[in-house]
Write a structure and sequence with these properties.
This protein is α+β, with helices and mostly antiparallel strands and about 190 residues long. Helix content is about 30%, strand content about 15%.
Length: about 190
């Protein structure tokens, strides 16, 4: 009888623990890099197009230099300033399209003209794919834009990235016209408080 009560309590504790872990509602993490500009956590940089694992499969480097060490949530966001510069991606791709290169130039110019400003790049995906894959793809998209800005002379230490995966669609619907608008990077200009 005592053994049965023990197992019931153990089972209840285990189920409560699993439920608590599965019910988290935290913000997506900001991508952190070590002092060498390398992604310090997880294997997200190793997941390539199509979700295949392998060395270098992601194709997105850190852009060189020191990466963001600031907390974007402690700064004043200006979403309107660069809203027109949102870039879009093809299905299952983190490659920046040629028709979005001028938008990256405009973002780089805005950062170069205001030395106190920082940038948050938010990577988003459409609803297709698993949650984990879309989170990884959103991160690769944000990192691709970060690298492109670094090649345009923007210090990568002024740029933070965040992946929302499929969690923040800009267009509702379950067809290509909606999905096309949801595969994107948004740029948020940040100013000190």
């Amino acid at each position: 009888m005592k053994l049965s009560k023990f197992f019931n309590l153990l089972l209840m504790g285990l189920l409560c623990g699993i439920a608590a872990v599965g019910c988290g509602t935290s913000k997506p993490p900001v991508t952190k890099f070590d002092s060498n500009g390398q992604n310090g956590g997880g294997k997200t940089g190793d997941i390539g197009e199509g979700g295949k694992l392998g060395p270098g499969a992601g194709g997105v480097g850190p852009g060189g230099g020191e990466a963001a060490t600031f907390d974007p949530d402690s700064m004043n966001p200006d979403r309107a300033a660069l809203a027109a510069q949102t870039i879009y991606f093809d299905l299952d791709s983190s490659a920046i399209r040629s028709d979005d290169q001028s938008k990256l130039e405009a973002v780089a110019s805005a950062l170069k003209s205001d030395a106190s400003a920082k940038l948050l790049i938010e990577g988003d995906c459409d609803e297709r794919g698993t949650e984990e894959y879309n989170r990884s793809l959103g991160e690769r998209r944000a990192l691709a834009a970060r690298e492109a800005l670094a090649t345009r002379g923007v210090d990568p230490g002024r740029i933070a990235t965040r992946s929302f995966g499929e969690d923040r669609p800009s267009a509702t619907g379950h067809d290509e016209s909606a999905w096309r608008k949801n595969r994107r990077d948004e740029f948020v200009l940040l100013h000190p408080r």
